Input
Amino acid sequence: MPITAAQIDNWRRERKEHQQLEFKAASRQYDTRKLCAYCVALANEGGGHLILGIADSLPHDVVGSEAFPDINDIAQNLLRWLNFRVNVEAVHHPDGRVIVFSIPSRPRGTAYHYDGRYLMRSGEELVAMSEDRLRVIFDEGRPDWLAQVCREGLSGTEVVELLDTQTFFELRKLPYPTDQAGVLERLRNERLILQRGGGFAILRYGALLLAKRLADFEDLAGKAPRVIVYRGSSKLSTRLEQTGGKGYAVGFEALVQFVMTQLPRNELIGLALREEFELVPSIVIRELVANALVHQDFSLFGASVMIEIYDDRVEISNPGEPIIPSVRFIDGSRSRNETFALIARKLRMCEEKGSGIDKVVNSIEAYQLPAPDFTSTFGRTVAIVYGQRSFDRMSRADRLRACYQHATLRYVMHGEKMSNRSLRERFGLPEDKAAVVSQLIAAALQEGLVKADETTGDSKRFARYVPFWA
Output
């Protein structure tokens, strides 16, 4: 289907460029070597679109491009230069000619290079892929690391001694078999163990989820989650550090309960009563810990899930960069470890359909806490949740994040649109703060986080807003 001017405008509404989208003004011409390099980089990161004739800064105005007047010629040259096909279209937008290069994803287990360099994007720049990143790509053609054997040559009794089969059957809500053969048969049917010759082998799936002691599996001991409790709001003084010992599924409830017991407690003073409550609700901890365990990058060795507790916040992080932009965590869903996520769902650790972040944000809004911050740093995905803080004490970034998440949550969960009133209620603000909230919405509009709902017309009283990508 040909690309339309309406599709161009949809892309322009993106808050900023990302791994699958790149804008260039290129009003007169565009260097073919840069074109080749961007095509390779975008292909290496899953494919995407390079669009000429659009300013790369907000609001992404259409400036028009005279580059590559013969699009068939440049398409043929790209195939000759790169050895993979790039679709090229010239779109006649009302504001000018736009050229769209639609770049396919690289094949699984393969990385493209140009002039001997395996390229990827890093912010606004193109950089050479690191050795670690290339190793991950080249390993894609090999069997799933989690599906490989980690212990073999075991008797049935040894399997039962290594794995917490009792908790497994409880989590699956199944009656415990009357004999060992029935236990092993169920584990075999679930693809957690294999029968080899006269013995059994435990797959990493099974060990990582059901191990009585992760230390019994040499290549999994480093995957145990760590809980670190600090004094104050910095890393200067550690009060407690503990590493989980059990498999993720059989030890999950105990891990969540342990984290909850370590959280600072806030005091809410009402008219006549003082009430203490946890820094953040338990459902928030449960969903974020499950998310971190299930969606971590298991190919990164020497790194584990970390739960860091401060006086004013909790940071939960896992190895691996997010595979979808963090700004789309609420509405987007894509699992890095699909089979592992499926097994974890059967064991009631998580919901495979990807509603965990929705629950987190919804619960935080119900408690009128600062909006969670989802980010990535140093090869890790980080979720930060904050304790109670009044609107007046929230930073501009806190308020903007809450505004965007509120608009997204209403749009995704309820099919509704954000209004001044709904945002005031989210913050627990009275009606006389309407002007302050209007200023916040105006700032979110300017930052490209939300946009006005066109169906409400120009009425400020009935104005409604949706997330930028809607």
